[in-house]
């Protein structure tokens, strides 16, 4: 829901949608697919013969196969490692989202180079994420005390200390990877989506808490922080950040 509403109910960028609209079927890869919700919603909007493949480093969030449309298949795959030979050069669209916390100046180019191998000539790479440099704590009341929310913002802003050296205010990043720049847009989260966005932060902290406490009998030290953050969110606090969507296109063979 968050991704779709953030992008004005468009799962594919208009430039991508316009290019593939007349085709009888397309092949789509969703990298860091998570629960495969993006693929599942996209399946309803594409011709039935389209093939949709989801990839994630872990299958922990994958729904049962029986709950998925028949044209969706999910696979465990580290996006930084080479894909199987039969997948190379076979996708019309490669979709990427919510990976910025994993990236730095040393691995962004290898990631883009690896994803580019999946694209057909003329295929599109679409990437949606938030800009950590823009993160700030906001509240419905100007006098609200929100130390936990401000702590989350601090973590987001410090997560990639070298971010200014590689994330650009345009699609030049894709051009350096050998793709033709098609679109770059900045997006703003609308207020009615903030409860969903807040819940994403809570789930992320709960997952981190589980990992930190694996094999331990005592409660995770993060549990109280999570409760404090939930209380601040309930009182009208939130983390604001600008988002971006960038689209690049694989050059045709003749270019």
Notable traits:
255 residues, alpha/beta, Rossmann fold, two-stranded antiparallel ribbon, 8 helices, 9 strands, 31% helix
Describe the structure in brief:
The chain has 255 residues and is α/β, with parallel strands linked by helices.
Structure overview:
The chain is α/β, with parallel strands linked by helices. The protein has one domain (2-249): Vaccinia Virus protein VP39 (Rossmann fold). Helix content is 31%, strand content 24%. It contains eight helices and nine strands. A seven-stranded mixed β-sheet has the order 3-2-1-4-5-9-7. Helix 4 (108-116) links the parallel strand 4 and strand 5 (119-130). It is globular, with a radius of gyration of 19 Å.
Low-pLDDT residue spans: none
End-to-end distance: 38 Å
| C-alpha Rg (nearest Å) | 19 Å
Give the class from helix and strand content and strand pairing.
alpha/beta
In the CATH scheme, the class would be Alpha Beta
CATH architecture classification name: 3-Layer(aba) Sandwich
- Helical proportion? 25-40%
Percentage of residues in strands: 15-25%
Spell out the helices and strands N to C: HHEHEEEHEEHHEHHEE
Looking at CATH, the homologous superfamily is Vaccinia Virus protein VP39
**Dominant shape:** globular
Q: Tell me the count of domains.
A: 1
Number of strand segments:
9
Largest sheet: 7 strands, mixed
State the strand order across the main sheet. Answer: 3-2-1-4-5-9-7
> What's the pLDDT, averaged over the residues?
90
């Amino acid at each position: 829901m968050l991704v779709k509403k953030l992008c004005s109910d468009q799962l594919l960028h208009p430039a991508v949608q316009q290019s593939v609209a007349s085709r009888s079927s397309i092949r789509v890869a969703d990298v860091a697919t998570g629960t495969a919700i993006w693929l599942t919603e996209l399946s309803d909007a594409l011709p039935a013969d389209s093939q949709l493949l989801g990839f994630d480093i872990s299958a922990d969030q994958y729904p049962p196969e029986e709950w998925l449309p028949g044209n969706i298949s999910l696979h465990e795959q580290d996006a930084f490692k080479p894909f199987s030979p039969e997948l190379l050069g076979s996708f019309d669209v490669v979709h990427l989202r919510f990976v910025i916390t994993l990236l730095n100046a040393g691995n962004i180019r290898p990631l883009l180079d690896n994803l580019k191998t999946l694209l057909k000539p003329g295929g599109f790479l679409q990437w949606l994420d938030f800009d950590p440099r823009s993160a700030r704590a906001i509240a419905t009341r100007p006098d609200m005390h929100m130390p936990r929310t401000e702590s989350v913002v601090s973590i987001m802003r410090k997560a990639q200390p070298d971010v200014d050296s590689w994330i650009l205010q345009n699609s030049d990043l894709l051009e350096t990877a050998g793709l033709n720049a098609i679109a770059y847009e900045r997006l703003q989260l609308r207020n009615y989506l903030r409860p969903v966005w807040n819940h994403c932060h809570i789930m992320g902290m709960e997952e981190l808490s589980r990992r930190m406490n694996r094999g331990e009998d005592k409660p995770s030290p993060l549990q109280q922080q999570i409760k404090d953050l939930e209380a601040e969110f309930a009182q009208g606090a939130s983390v604001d950040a600008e988002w971006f969507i960038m689209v690049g296109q694989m050059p045709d063979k003749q270019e």
